[in-house]
Amino acid sequence: MSKDIKIRKGLDLKLKGEASNTIVTASKSSIYAIKPADFHAVVPKLILKEGAAVEAGEPLFYSKYDEKVKFVAPVSGTITEILRGAKRRILEVKITANGTSEAINHGKVDVSNATADQVKSMLLESGCWPFIIQRPYSVIANSEDTPKAIFVSAYATAPLAGDPEVILADKKEAFQAGITALSKLTSGKVHLCVGKGSSLKDISNTDVHTVKGPHPAGNVGVQIHKIDPINMGERVWTVGAEDVATIGNLFLTGEFHAERTVALVGTDAKEADRKYYRTIIGANVSSIIGEVDTNNTRIISGDVLTGDKLENNQFLNFYHNTLTLIPEGNEYALLGWLPFTRNNIPSNAGTSFSKLLGGKREVDTNLNGEDRALVVTGEMEEVMPMDIYPLQLIKACMAGNIERMENLGIYEVAPEDFALIDFTNTSKLEAQEVIRLGLDLMLTEVG
Amino acid sequence: MKWVRNKLDQARKPFEPGQKFEKFAPAINAFDTFLFTPNHTTKKGAHIRDVVDLKRTMITVVLALIPALLFGMWNTGAQYLYQDMGLANVTDVPFWDAFIEGAILVTPLIIVSYVVGLTIEFIFAIYRGHEVNEGYLVTGLLIPMIFPVDIPLWMLAISVAFAVLIGKEAFGGTGMNILNPALTARAFAFFAYPLYMSGNAIWVHQGSTDTVSGETILGALASGSYDGQVTGYAQNAVAFSGTTGAGQPSALAEASVFDAFMGFIPGSVAETSALMILLGALILIATKVGSWRIIVGGIVGGMIMGGIFNLFGTMGSNYINELVSSGTITMDQIQNDASAVAALGLQGWDATLLELGTNQLINFPFWQHLVVGSILFGIVFMATDPVSAAQTMKGKWIYGILAGFFGIMIRVFNPAYPEGIMLAILLMNVFAPTIDHYVIQANVNKRKKRLSKAKAQLQTA
């Protein structure tokens, strides 16, 4: 049954540099890396050492606090380097691929007849469990929990983000299997949110919702808030759209194919190169971006609002299906603060004509100002479609006031829900970081 | 541009970390970032940022203030020359003569306000090691705009210092203050130097009640010396036709609602023209820099209170009509003969009704309150200060309505201080966090209710 969700508040940033809807296979990367930092709040315990040979799907490390949650090699090859940072923190586990596609086979499972325990142990063993993210806190789900609902958003509204409709175009069977598998894990429903006219409307074993509205309508957090908001003590799980297909594929074939379809976007990527690439999780980004001078380019794994900054020779984030290349904006602007100037920069403010001028805009990474005290009020509410007081929640997080954070709805949000506030805020606040720190505090204090 | 940039980069060198003047970096940064939006890039998501920053926001408010300021300069000059030249109308004063005279009178106030205020801001920025916030750009202009033109410069300087030190920095600086700094300056001056801040003679440069009155319409209404009927301010037939001093028609007697709306009346430097203030309001609302909720709320709140007073005034008028028509007393006696009124021996409600019927401020038409005095200026430029106002959307409505409501209430009830809006806004500044608290609490309660409902469902399942 299809239900409509209409979002009014928010902001659609129309940016130049979108990907065309063609999918190609990326040139194979020789080195792949799994980065523990991609898995927030996970303390990795290494299983294999440098020099060890690995098969695709073989565990590399597990989570210290939940040993059942394993993180596996995306390809077969040799662990050539374990890069460590300060305090010997593991930054990257690099695998040099041997080019074969050997993978550990866990045996096919008929997902429609499988029990919850079977599904769970299959996901944990195969290394697919990290795809399941829990709210509150936006961390990998606890394998002991049974969530009240599972949410999948197959509707992308973030600027230039990879479109799940394109990514899933030939993965519908696997997607259906994945949804069926997930439906075993919850006491409630699996909710699937799609855009208008989606090809995923007839997926069964799920409640399909049609979402309409500006970004962040596609954010799973907003959808949860509208459909079945999280109360204190409740758990909700979310899984990315392509990850559902990967999970489904696991049950159909018995193997974990760490395939990832990545949209290369942004004005610094060559126009001919801007399309979707089939690659493997953890691939080196140079295998996708091709021959581009990236000297003064910001390479972002993810979209421009929530992604991670990468250097040239780095690796795709575990969860991201967008790779954005935009110019660094390290330039001065003479009297740049004058109202109604620099209308080429996208803006939600009334002191810029850019909204009135319409059209797609080119963006760079200039902060367009400096950090200032929180003075302007009301602008956060404009882009926050949840029934939450964003300014007050941010202040509660800054103050570390746990009770107030709880009261103001910290359990319902993730940093990505505050990305537009990052963008529009006059005081150049790092709202996502503040919320992340607030969530981390809750995680350690409340759990 | 490159040449300027290079020079600036050179000038900045001694202020770099580890260099001689490292501590004074905020000062040079303030100049640098005024000329150039810096080349700072984002560190992490969101990787792109909106073009708006605090400088742009504050400059927009300054832009919104410019029409009122320019008009204020002209009016200040015009009011003075009109009195000095003995012309028939304010508008008869040659335009440029009036403007130049006004500019000469007003500019020193602006300079003193900015020099004193910014000096303190810079010292605090250097002391605290943070960047100079742009808030004072607005405060520094607002303060001279709401003072009488003849305020001695040293009094202005002390008021500014008080506002910045006690009103703002004591609370932690920009964004932390609970009171509007510009109003804090005015309130300080009002209580510290009452002779220079209230009364009849101060509103026009070298104003004197001996020649042509320099008092404001509100002052005249409060003292009962303003003839409402003659000038088109009358609301109803029985409106008290008060004496005009020594039987002389006040200069104000010539002022019509149109004059008051245009701003051809005495008052603080830039608060007289409703038209120019509304133009500023339009800029603030169109650019989303000022909250339309507060502005609309303030106007509605003021009109509601004015309307309530008018209602009481009408009751009083009706009572006086009864007295007159029954032949108990004549209208003339009510107006001019205190002993005749006393001889009636009116007590209790009857005495109150007589007072209500004869009080000019109570009978002043509710909508005309908006064009005289500082209420519109206060609502548009003071109440909308986002730091000291309510921060939630619903809170802004309540805050605005109450500010207008109390503004008119103080204006009418306290003849010593007819510019009630300033005190009303300061009062609401204090209550803004309380308003927000209850608005937010409603949201918290909603969440708690949802939780208990979910728990109940779990138990029944």
Give descriptors for this structure.
heterodimer; A: 447 residues; alpha/beta; OB fold (Dihydrolipoamide Acetyltransferase, E2P); 4 domains; seven-stranded mixed β-sheet; six-stranded mixed β-sheet; 12 helices; 21 strands; B: 461 residues; mainly alpha; 2 domains; 19 helices; 0% strand; globular
Shape of chain A: globular
Q: In what order do the strands lie side by side in the largest sheet of chain A?
A: 1-14-13-12-15-10-11
Note the beta-strand portion of chain A: 15-25%
The oligomeric status of these chains comes to: heterodimer
- Give the number of domains of chain A: 4
**Greatest interface:** A-B, 78 and 61 residues
The helical percent of chain B reads 55-70%
Uncertain parts of chain A: none
Strand content of chain B: under 5%
Mean pLDDT of chain B: 85
Averaged pLDDT of chain A, please? Answer: 93
- Count up the helices of chain A: 12
Give the proportion of residues in helices of chain A.
10-25%
Family (chain A): Belongs to the NqrA family.
Domain NqrA N-terminal barrel-sandwich hybrid (chain A): 5-97
Protein name (chain A): Na(+)-translocating NADH-quinone reductase subunit A
Pfam family, one (chain A): NQRA_2nd
Short structural description:
The complex is a heterodimer of chains A (447) and B (461). By secondary structure, chain A is α/β, with parallel strands linked by helices.
